[in-house]
Design goal:
Length: 607
């Protein structure tokens, strides 16, 4: 007998005792003398103590019931998830206190687990509020996939959509738990786009709660033999490093990958961004996914990689057939800048526990991002290459004439008069006359001669110099150089149906001196019409295996040895192809409207 039953029996026994006391008291007049007040008081104390015991036992009973209820809810939650994985019909759990008899009518409002569409197995509502986090990775698991690829790049400006790439790939991913909250996956891929092979490996370390989110770090390294141009050599090594985030919102998911990338077509010498600046770039990948059914996923996404934006739509369906459980088919359509288009279709095989698609994606393996890389690198390099150069600065104007000399300053004031000379010496005293009577007083002797005039004082300082005359007018500014923007276009078809010169209906208009490279025939054409034009002339024929060109029009194209033209200037709009036999760094130069040669591009061999 359980503790609960013992408590209930004690409760009934106490109540029976109280009733007996009351009955005895009521019958006391007939049986014996009525109890004294002291006896009645003692009986009330005993009754109160019994009530306190009942209250305490009631609290303990409630706590025990709550513990049993939580254990039952956790058992129900585990059973719901197990049935969700197995696709079995839900099992009704009877309450421990359920009375014997026929089973009650099912609760129509309760969620029903279905192999087609079930409630979110990770939500608190699905388990009546009882919740315990699932592990980041349920168990060691593996998946493999294979797909076919068809891509078309519209960057060729010849008007011919000839940049098609067909290929396929195979990829695998091994995912394993690292404790309860963390997991890791290792991915590999092998494939090709056209005749260009692609191989890569990646690692993904992450924290995940399957009911909430995933946060991780991701890195990949791949080798892709890229279809390069003689004017745009690619880096065959392609690397990514970034962060991953996934948010689980019921049947919806938000999945983000972003970070740093290098390698691929944008590491060529002059593609889009100029030398050097394109070697370290940002990339991102965003998907908004929804599961209409447990085994069906649809998503819309955005990609920014290789300097290009791309938008994608995807779908995946896992078969519900017992013989095909763990097998899904998927398809994808891409559309991007420069008229890029791609279509992918394939099959995936999941190995591990038998689960619905939504649970595989949230409890087992994350996406194989390497499969995205092979699609992004399938875009062949057929760009519009635009290094821009301006004309030379006009000559400096002649120096203006020297201004007239300023007027002489006023003469300084006369210096002060010199000091008066010393007084001359007094004349000699006449001899003493004989003493006689005192004669009349003699005439006073003449005054001595005046001393000579003192020397003239020094000349006073000169007056201040007069103000300088105004500067002469500046000479006229030299003529401004004629500006020019050089363009280098690349396409896959000759611009003229016949003849070495024509007005092309397939090329866009461009400035005189612009160069068009036809990768299909390995020829160079120059825009030779005045101003903005689409008149072109064949100027050279090349050999992509050694990166050499020979002239078809000596007046417009010449070949020289060295790293630069032998003369800094030549015929306006003429081109010079320089061959450096020492380093193999061949280059193409074009003269602007004033005949000054400007560097246009390196030319690579063996592409």
């Amino acid at each position: 007998m359980t503790h609960g039953h013992l408590r209930v029996n004690r409760h009934w026994a106490l109540l029976a005792g109280i009733a007996a006391v009351a009955l005895t008291a009521s019958a006391a007049p007939a049986l014996a003398q009525a109890p004294s007040n002291e006896q009645l008081y003692q009986m009330l104390l005993e009754l109160k103590a019994g009530q306190e015991r009942l209250k305490a036992e009631n609290v303990a009973t409630k706590a025990e019931n709550e513990r049993i209820r939580k254990e039952l809810l956790e058992t129900k939650r585990k059973l719901v998830i197990a049935e969700h994985a197995a696709g079995a019909a839900p099992v009704a759990l009877a309450s421990p206190a359920a009375p014997a008899g026929p089973p009650p009518k099912p609760d129509e409002s309760a969620p029903v687990v279905s192999a087609v569409r079930s409630p979110d197995p990770y939500s608190h509502a699905a388990t009546d509020g009882a919740y315990a986090p699932l592990p980041a990775v349920s168990a060691l698991n593996f998946k493999g996939e294979g797909a076919g690829l068809a891509a078309n790049d519209g960057r060729a400006l010849s008007g011919v959509r000839a940049n098609n790439a067909f290929g396929g790939y195979g990829a695998g991913s091994l995912t394993f738990p690292l404790g309860h909250d963390f997991g890791a996956s290792v991915d590999t891929v092998l494939g090709s786009a056209g005749a260009n092979p692609f191989v890569g490996a990646a690692g993904h370390l992450f924290w995940r709660d399957p009911s909430t989110a995933l946060v991780g770090v991701y890195g990949s390294l791949a080798y892709a033999d890229q279809p390069s141009s003689v004017f745009g050599k690619s880096d065959d090594v392609y690397a990514k490093l970034g962060m991953t985030t996934e948010l689980y919102l019921g049947r919806a998911s938000v999945e983000i990958l972003g970070g740093w990338e290098t390698g691929g077509p944008l590491n060529n010498s002059i593609y889009t961004y100029g030398p050097g600046g394109q070697r370290n770039r940002l990339f991102d990948q965003l998907d908004l996914a929804y599961y209409p059914l447990d085994d069906w996923r649809v998503s819309l996404g955005q990609r920014y990689s290789q300097g290009q934006n791309l938008f994608t739509a995807k779908t995946e369906y896992q078969f519900d057939n017992p013989n095909l459980r763990g097998v899904s088919i998927f398809a994808e359509g891409d559309i991007g800048q420069n008229n890029y288009r791609a279509a992918i279709a394939g099959v995936r095989f999941y190995f591990g526990q038998d689960k619905t698609l939504i649970r595989r994606h949230r409890e087992d393996d994350p996406p194989i991002y390497l499969a995205e890389d092979i699609r992004q690198l399938s875009r062949p390099i057929q760009p519009s290459l635009r290094p821009h150069f301006g004309g030379p600065t006009g000559a400096t104007g002649a120096t203006g004439a020297t201004g007239a000399t300023g007027a002489t300053g006023a003469t300084g004031s006369t210096g002060a008069t010199g000091a008066t000379g010393a007084t001359g010496a007094t004349g000699a005293t006449g001899g003493t006359g004989a003493t006689g009577p005192t004669g009349a007083t003699g005439v006073t002797g003449p005054t001595g001669a005046t001393g000579s005039t003192g020397a003239t004082g020094a000349t006073g300082p000169a007056g201040a110099t007069g103000a300088t005359g105004s500067t002469g007018a500046t000479g006229a500014t030299g003529a401004t150089g004629t500006g020019m923007t050089f363009d280098l276009y690349e396409g896959a078809a000759a611009p003229c149906a016949s003849g070495p010169s024509c007005t092309s209906s397939t090329l866009p208009t461009a400035g005189q001196g612009t160069i068009y490279y036809d990768s299909a025939t390995d020829t160079l054409w120059e825009y030779t019409g005045a101003g903005t034009t689409n008149t072109v002339t064949l100027i050279a024929t090349g050999n992509s295996s050694n990166g050499q060109f020979t002239s078809n029009d000596p007046s417009l194209f010449s070949v020289e040895s060295g790293t630069a033209p032998s003369s800094p200037s030549g015929v306006p709009y003429s081109a010079v192809f320089t061959v450096d036999t020492t380093s193999g760094a061949n280059s193409l130069w074009v003269a602007n409207s004033q005949g000054v040669y400007q560097f246009l591009s390196n030319v690579y061999a063996g592409e």
